[in-house]
Amino acid sequence: MSHAVNAFVSSSSRSPSTFTISRPSVFVSTGNLRVVPVKKPLPLRTLVVKASSASSDLDDSSHSSPVLVSENGAGSRSGSMFASSGDSSSIEVDAVTEAELKENGFRSTRRTKLICTIGPASCGFEQLEALAVEGMNVARINMCHGTRDWHRMVIERVRRLNEEKGFAVAIMMDTEGSEIHMGDLGGASSAKAEDGEIWNFTVRAFDPPLPERTITVNYDGFAEDVRVGDDLLIDGGMVRFEVIEKIGPDVKCLCTDPGLLLPRANLTFWRDGKLVRERNAMLPTISSKDWLDIDFGIAEGVDFIAVSFVKSAEVIKHLKSYIKARARDGDIAVIAKIESIDSLRNLEEIIQASDGAMVARGDLGAQIPLEQVPSEQQKIVQLCRQLNRPVIVASQLLESMIEYPIPTRAEVADVSEAVRQRGDALMLSGESAMGQFPEKALTVLRNVSLRIERRWREQKRREVIELPSIASSFSDSISEEICNSAAKMANNLEVDALFVYTKNGHMASLLSRCRPDCPIFAFTTATSVRRRLNLQWGLMPFRLNYSDDMESNLNKTFSLLKARGMIKSGDLIIAVSDMLQSIQVMNVP
Predict the structure, then answer these.
(1) What is the catalytic activity of this protein (predicted)?
(2) DSSP result, 294-306
């Protein structure tokens, strides 16, 4: 049975920041959605739509003055709505976010998140602090390099940075994967391969130092599988060799494209213009070493685990069940790295099974034609957004800044395109891990992101991307519709910020998916949820202890943020919550 409800929100002539809720001519209770009627039009800054499993009607005689409806059904007079509570020290916010808000206001805050790979060039406490000040949201540790003790030291320094300096930098651990890799170059940080040089690739083990121009390979069947005339691509094609001779376990190769060789770089071989992938397809996605590294990451409480060379959704599901059984609260998110032909073939099911995805363009570009990489990147970014999964654009964003203090103009254009595609995050790899200018590289990412985002808002561009429903239940459908509507209202009303109170981060991610013009203040009670939200576009995660009473939460939030100078009276706010499924529009008193 359908019911017509004559309820609407209109601007009041009394004040541009006041709204009127007109009384419904018919009260409707569908069993899951209740509209609270009032006796007459009232000046009110709040529109409440409440979801409930109860189907009982409300007596509208009990609502003769403005109310906020809380989850427990209690109403509160709007006159006492903005009572002061709490103190400014009981809310946790990232120090850089707080400084940006105070200095530049809502509209100038950066929406795209930034990830830095930590290595020898950036692992010191002062260096980590400098990166955090420049806007690093996530610190990535790459298990291809370094020892577990070294990685533990980095994790401890990031945690200390957060505790002592007021940051909220999350930690991502990236597994090595079981694809074919070079060895560690005998302890050297790098080696230069020149055009025309002959190098020896071998599966034999050597004690350091390695013989001159020798590269060890981690795959025992390498010498058997490779053929004379094959092309070997190192690190996604950064260096290229041609196989000229096979002698037992050794493979002699001619350098045809010179470049810098890095320890444990990925290695692929091509034959007659096609990738030879049979052996890689037989290798497990998660190696025995990876499982030990994953146990290490669980024990250290990292926020994200990125899985290399994912071939199917089953791998992700298996890892998530393993983490759930062993991690505290099972709150480590799994990121699927899309970097192989198998990943592209099973793309949607992999993304659906994961908690996010990374476009690893370097290794992906070694398995598909280079000209195909941009379109695949755009496809992955759009699909992740449609499925409400954060997506990271990675690899070679500012590769030249490993050696030079400024990027090429083409690199800046590449970064700009990733920002225009509305990816959640951009990631530095060698630029921050071993480059000479890690802070400058991060500054370039930040400045380009800010400029492109600001231009997008100034032009009031609206995307045409269709966001399909992803809800799996009626309650989820309500949350999704509320967030879609709140984001649309935020754009149309040009509000200063969206507030979302979320215990598990889901409604915050739904708002982020909509990419509204204004920043999103995400309030959560859990520190781990707060750090994970630091990966998602447009979210400013706060840790705040709050109740199920939205009135009390708003009182407390306004008081705390005003005390810290992060909002001011008159700012226009839209608030939503996963406790009380509602949209509330109000001015800060």
Answers:
(1) pyruvate + ATP = phosphoenolpyruvate + ADP + H(+)
(2) HHHHHHHT-SEEE
In degrees, rounded to 5, the angle at the alpha carbon of residue 369 between the alpha carbons of residues 368 and 373 is 80
The CATH number for 166's domain is 3.20.20.60
β-pairing, 231-234 with 239-247?
A: antiparallel
CA atoms within 13 A on the CB side of 83: 10
The interaxial angle of helices 438-458 and 409-420, nearest 10 deg, is: 50
DSSP3 helix / strand / coil % (the chain, rounded to 5): 35, 25, 40
Cα 76 from Cα 192, distance rounded (Å):
71
Helix (H) or strand (E) holding 234: strand 231-234
Question: What residues have CB less than 8 Å from 514, skipping those under 6 apart?
Answer: 467, 483, 484, 487, 488
Task: Report the half-sphere exposure of 198 (CA within 13 A, side-chain side).
Answer: 6
SS3 562: helix
Segment 309-328, tens digit of pLDDT: 999 999 999 999 999 999 87
CA 357 from centre of chain? 8
Helix axes 125-134, 148-165, angle to 10 degrees: 60
State how beta strands 425-428 and 113-117 pair: parallel
Residue 484 is part of a domain; what is its CATH number?
3.40.1380.20
Q: How far apart are CA 66 and CA 77, in angstroms?
A: 6
Per-residue pLDDT tens digits for 521-547: 999 999 999 999 999 999 999 999 988
239 within 8 A of 259, measured Cβ to Cβ: yes
Cα-based angle 398, 539, 437 (whole degrees, multiple of 5): 25
**How many CA atoms, within 13 angstroms, populate the side-chain half-sphere of residue 397?**
32
Name the domain boundary from 282, 317, 350. Answer: 282
Three-class SS of residue 507?
helix
DSSP characters for 463-494? ---------SSHHHHHHHHHHHHHHHHHHHHT
What 8-state DSSP symbol labels residue 309? S
User: Side chain identity at 62, as an amino acid letter?
Assistant: S
Map residue 82 onto helix, strand or coil: coil
405 within some domain: yes
User: What is the enclosing helix (H) or strand (E) of 251?
Assistant: strand 250-257
Residue whose token pair is 């004690």: 207
pTM for the model stands at: 0.82
Contact 451, 443 (CB under 8 A): no
User: CA–CA distance from 359 to each of 344, 423, 549, 574 (Å)?
Assistant: 11, 10, 41, 33
Sign, CA torsion 445/446/451/456: positive
Q: Where are the beta strands (DSSP E) in 400-447?
A: 425-428
Q: What pLDDT band is residue 252 in, cutting at 50, 70 and 90?
A: very high
> Do residue 236 and residue 290 come from a single domain?
no
Please say whether the beta carbons of 582 and 576 come within 8 A.
Answer: yes
**Is the domain of 198 the same as that of 172?**
no
Any domain includes 105: no
Residue 125: CA atoms inside 13 Å, Cβ hemisphere, count? 10
